[in-house]
Specification:
heterodimer, A: mainly beta, 6-stranded mixed beta sheet, 11 strands, 0% helix, B: mainly beta, globular
């Protein structure tokens, strides 16, 4: 069964304190691993797509990496405006996105 | 310009009623979706619609039905609403299939009383 497990559920960081969010997945025939950001009361906002193990993508303070079993979202020197829920999802042979339950990130000034 | 827009943003209705949520995308995407986000913030696919091919999540009750008048619109009709249908519903679109990034609307918070 296709699954996505994210950890931790919640993470509080001081401004400038770098950390990583984890996304473990099981899927038949990975077609894409996605990261989204969701702010309260809004829809998820696309961040990255990764397609194969070893692939990395960066955007400002965020960097996403992918292995055959996990993906990490590394946040370098976060700012309060990075506070949000970060969602991981994958697409497999079922041709549907399966989402994890998210990591709620709070960055304190 | 809003890429994926859905209306209404809030919907409060009584049990047993029938309601619709509208969704429009101006991105020229081929695939549209409906997702349900429950109180624990868990996003679950309900439907995907691509070139008249409808893929239905088997867990979705048949009281829910998507209607696509054209490629840019995918509306969600819900019959005989139940308390458990209360959730936030998101419309999304993507340029290709599920291996391409999806763009989401702002959500419709449905409350059934």
């Amino acid at each position: 069964e296709d699954q996505v497990t994210q950890s931790p559920e919640a993470l509080r960081l001081q401004e400038g304190e770098s950390s990583s969010l984890n996304c473990s997945y099981t899927v038949s025939g990975l077609r894409g691993l996605f990261w989204y950001r969701q702010d309260p009361g809004k829809g998820p906002e696309f961040l990255f797509t990764l397609y194969s193990a070893g692939e990395e993508k960066e955007k400002e303070r965020l960097k996403a990496t992918l292995t055959k079993k996990e993906s990490f979202l590394h946040i370098t020197a976060p700012k309060p405006e990075d506070s949000a829920t970060y969602l991981c999802a994958h697409s497999g042979s079922a041709r549907q996105l399966t989402f994890g339950s998210g990591t709620q990130l709070t960055v304190l000034p | 310009d809003t890429a994926v827009s859905q209306t209404p943003k809030y919907l409060v209705t009584q049990m047993g009623n029938d309601k619709s949520i509208k969704c429009e995308q101006n991105l020229g995407h081929d695939t549209m979706y409906w997702y349900k986000q429950d109180s624990k913030k868990f996003l679950k696919i309900m439907f995907s619609y691509n070139n008249k091919e409808l893929i239905i999540n088997e867990t979705v009750p048949n009281r829910f039905s998507p209607k696509s008048p054209d490629k840019a619109h995918l509306n969600l009709h819900i019959n005989s609403l139940e308390l458990g249908d209360s959730a936030v519903y998101f419309c999304a679109s993507s340029p290709g299939g599920s291996n391409t990034e999806a763009f989401f609307g702002q959500g419709t918070r449905l409350t059934v009383v």
